[in-house]
Here is the input.
Amino acid sequence: MVSDKRDGAPQEFVALARQVAAPQLTEAALRLRFGPRSSWAPVPGQVWRVTRGDVGLLVLLLGVGAGSVDAAPISVDSVDAADTLPIEGGSTDLGVPVTVWPGLRREFSIGVLDRPVAELTAAVVVRVVGWPARSGEPVPEVARRSDPAVSEARAILEDDLAAVDDMVGEDVEPLDPEMTGGIDFENLPPEALDEAVERLGVPLPVLLDMIDGKRISTPAQAMIMREVLGWSPAAAALPPGLVTELHQPRWRGLARQRGRRDRITEEAARTALAYDVTAMAARQTGEQEPSWPDRVRRWTESQRLDPDVVE
Amino acid sequence: MGEAGIDAYEELQELGHLDRLGFDLLLELVGQEVQRFPLLRPGAGWSADSVLDWALSFFAERGAAVTAAVLAQAADLASMSRYLRISIRNFLVSEARKTPSGSVRRKIEELLAATPKFGQVPAGHAGAGRWQLSGPARAPFGGDPRSLVAAAYSVPGVAVVRWTGVRRAPLASDEALIRILDAVFSAASGSLEVADLTWIFLQRFPAAVAPADATLDPAAFDWAVAPLDERPDVLVEVGAQAREVYDQLSPSQRALLPHLEKPVADHMQILGVGRSQAYEAARKLKTVIGDLMPEDDLRGAVVLEVVRLCVVHP
Here is the structure.
């Protein structure tokens, strides 16, 4: 529990802070409302938190595709401008006035969605979807000059959107084609296979399967094989369906856990997860092919990981 | 981390509101951010009490929005701190721009009273006591005041003189201000409160403070806010007009001006902001320079001298 001791905080502050509390937005309250992470499925009308690094912002979902969402950013303030739609505090779950910015609407990778936090009415979604397109035209000069604070708020939001957008396309690192070739077993030092087995942490039969292409190699494994054996198999392309599935926000907690464990970025962790799931799927032959969500769930269970763990 | 081993974000998540750790974080961030706002600095310099005052003012005005926003869009202490810092910065920019309101209001009242073309709505009529163009009583203006800001901007040939620096220069010449009042009343087709007129004039003549002042490199900032009289390179008399223009620029505008024609990537680096904010800062500076520079043969020389004053920074 939080200590009751408040040496530094004046009572005036504490009283005001309690007045403006937003208990409906705590993680615990949101979990009750939207369920555990593994059950989340983005739908239009929901307001989602979008995060990358220390950048966090809110977006209103207008359309949801397999790997991307159509969304407009939301700022927690009331901005009445030519390209904004202010919404009163009483009409949202956020409890304070917010502003939707239809002029900054864009498509995001679904992988940037972090968690649902609220819902807006269908009427708001319809208004934003039907907002007149600006066609990239700059905001009229008179409008900019008449309210510098709006221009500045818009610029900050645009920069945050750009920072989040940068995430798209960084997930899968393709292998260098020059890495492919063949192992010259005749001239390979005998200890090289032992070293490869040790560094890869796999038994020799598994290593041989990897060399033969019967077992998939991750980029990291391919790198070790190239260093030790002078060659590595081309890592098979990841199945697009799995890549799309792992971008769903319901698996984002897994990627974060993996990233923290291996001290790698969330993007790199998601790629590693994809290779792990693919490798397990390749071993599961002779049965009815499960869906990618089911495969991810099976792999999660086999690893005793919890996608719903509170971070 | 607090005594219970949690941080301000975890405290917020547990309680649903800021508390002791949140207050400490707020105070720390406000203490850092106010340093970049000389317009707000108390005469005796910053103290723990004056920082506390600004922290409480900030929270009194924006506490509800900040609490909801941090809970909704921050995922950890780092993103909470970033959001709070930007909110504090925006608040301080807004407050710094309000500082001359008293002076502006007094100037407007003085001009209204001294100029026959303006008069007050007589008693017994709607909006009695408000100001209007002389003539029959007019109804109170009920439209969007932002349209009147555009009218204020439409008056040509007004040199912008801002309310910054040691010298509190007038907004512009009395004659120019009267022309602006005339244009605003004409656009309003009704009567206005002095408070409305003050707001319109503050939009038309904002104080010299820019958001990028807070992200500017510390050495460049120190140079840019140093009084011109104390600078060793300014030993000779500089052109009065160039000096006046220089005085009206904010620290980040002074840092940016010599590099205004460079690509936006350079602006991003100089100001320490993202692309859109750099673009916005450059756009605003070009507008301000256009407004401030004299429309005569001296313009080229004044521009060069202002750039020279700005370019001698380390």
Notes: Residues 211-311 of chain B form one domain.
